[in-house]
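Page 37, continued from 36.
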């Protein structure tokens, strides 16, 4: 009689053992946390720990109203801002590209206000026309940080800080290189390719350059026209001018992209850029260093586009109650000759 019992017990044990193995096998095929389709899921289960209070892990949301993608410099700035905030889990970036139109930047700022962002970054395409929308941001208690271009003086209460370069100094440095190159008293005809009409970078690079040559009677700006900071427009303006007059010794372009466009136009007109006509640009983009190394360009006045880290730090300092400088200035250099050639391998943008 007892013999039957052991058999039944054995069978029951075997069935239980098979069930246990099958159950484990089920988990071992998909790592236990994955659904049958093999994709991992971090969806909280019903009995997950309750969420931390919102303040404790609230991200800082930053809205950045960028101008556009008109130049290599602008792309480098956009990359810097996006990289800075995407690398930091404590931040969320809302990015808007205005295609170089002020009305699009104003729309973006109003959207950021409606979304109740924690801070707004603005690279104002032109100096004027910001009072109304920046007052709306102020009334919504959203701090605004200007990046790389300024707004009309007298509106300092509408933003926390301007993070950017000294464009007047950049214009002065461009003129200094030219006068050192040709000498005081030389007869020099200059074509000036201006940046976007109304932009602080264009207004001040023009002012710095023109003030610096005011005392040099032989230095004449024979033509000055906007190329809107783009390579295509810079080439177009230069082509049109060369059809009328080839007796120029210098092109001063408010950014390297327009200088590179002018270089193309000068070559197509049968002249040697960098030799027959000296080429001065501003920004310090890698393509300018390459053109200098090729002997087609002579100097680039550096303007730092890698402003993402400074914007983030300024927001953090502001949120911590620190009083910030109204102008957080970038340190920059002037590159020409062997110094530019030596620096080329290390240029980041
Ligand atoms: C300078 C920036 C200018 C660059 C151009 O801070 O605003 O705008 O010099 C860019 O290349 O288009």
């Amino acid at each position: 009689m007892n013999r039957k019992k052991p058999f039944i017990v054995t069978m029951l044990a075997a069935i239980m053992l098979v069930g246990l193995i099958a159950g484990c096998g089920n988990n071992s095929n998909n790592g236990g946390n994955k659904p049958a389709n093999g994709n991992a899921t971090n969806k909280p289960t019903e009995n997950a720990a309750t969420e931390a209070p919102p303040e404790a892990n609230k991200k800082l949301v930053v809205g950045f109203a960028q101008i556009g993608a008109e130049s290599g410099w602008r792309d480098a700035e956009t990359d810097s801002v996006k990289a800075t905030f995407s690398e930091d889990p404590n931040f969320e970036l809302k990015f808007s590209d205005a295609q170089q139109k002020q009305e699009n930047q104003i729309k973006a700022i109003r959207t950021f206000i409606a979304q109740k962002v924690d801070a707004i970054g603005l690279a104002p395409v032109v100096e004027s026309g910001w009072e109304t929308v920046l007052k709306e941001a102020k009334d919504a208690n959203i701090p605004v940080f200007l990046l790389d271009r300024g707004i009309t003086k007298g509106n300092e209460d509408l933003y926390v800080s301007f993070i950017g370069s000294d464009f007047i100094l950049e214009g002065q440095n461009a003129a200094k290189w030219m006068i050192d190159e040709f000498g005081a008293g030389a007869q020099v005809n200059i074509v000036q390719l201006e940046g976007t009409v109304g932009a602080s970078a264009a207004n001040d690079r023009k002012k710095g350059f023109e003030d610096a040559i005011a005392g040099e009677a032989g230095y004449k700006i024979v033509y000055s026209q906007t190329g809107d900071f783009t390579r295509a427009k810079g080439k177009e303006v230069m082509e049109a001018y060369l059809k009328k007059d080839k007796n120029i010794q210098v092109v001063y372009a408010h950014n390297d992209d327009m200088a590179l466009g002018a270089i193309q136009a000068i070559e197509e007109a049968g002249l040697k850029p960098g030799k027959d006509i000296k080429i001065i640009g501003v920004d310090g983009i890698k393509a300018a260093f390459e053109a200098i190394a090729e002997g087609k360009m002579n100097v680039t006045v550096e303007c730092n586009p890698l402003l993402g880290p400074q914007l983030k730090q300024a927001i953090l300092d502001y949120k911590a109650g620190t009083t910030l400088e109204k102008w957080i200035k970038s340190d920059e250099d002037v590159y020409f000759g062997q110094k530019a050639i030596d620096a080329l391998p290390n240029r980041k943008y």
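The first strand starts at residue 60 and ends at 66. Flag for discussion at group meeting. The CA atoms of residues 187 and 218 lie 4 Å apart.
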